[in-house]
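FIELD: query
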Amino acid sequence: MYTREQVAATIDHSLLKPFMTVQDVIDGCALAHRCQVATCCVRPCDVALAHEHLKDSGVQVCAVVGFPHGAHRTQTKVLEARLALEDGAAELDMVMNIGRFLSGRPDEVRVDIEAVVAEARPREAIVKVILETCYLSNEQIARACRLCAEAGADFVKTSTGYGDGGATPEVIEIMLRTVGDRMRVKAAGGVRDWATAVAYLRQGCSRLGVSATEKVLAGAPDAGQT
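FIELD: result
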């Protein structure tokens, strides 16, 4: 049984489109405040702006790192993480280096994640690692999840929303089965209605990446229960 408020509290409201203006970000923060979501997930250039507009709102700021391809050098990701935290981010959604992972270089991937985690830990910031599962086989998804756990990340996340596919129940099941006892799981990409959001929460996800937040929450039954 989920209420509208309970589902809202699991949503990272995404404001990541490349053409978003300053006013778009301000309006998105107002929506996030009004809906009382978990976080407003923004581009690096918007962290300070979002923090200013969300202070005392109960909604945290989440910043993306190495977005959307994960191919930034580790030093760049570290600096991006540091600046985002200084600007007020409480959470970081970093993209795994997908190309290095697919090249069979797990140590490089692990070090990349560990470096961002090391920036986050002193500030008690949460780190979520985006796997972009649409490019991975089932076995690779499980292996990537284990790498993220070894690197000390808090969450594994399915997708950026800019790849060739988003979350699926099958992928979520693999992630939960592999690291669900050690990490939390975030479904992102394709969460566009109430039924899908609730289904992922029932499956075991702790967080949802959503851009159509108003539409999703509008689908809640009038009684406030599923």
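FIELD: remark
Residues 106-120 form the longest helix (15 residues).
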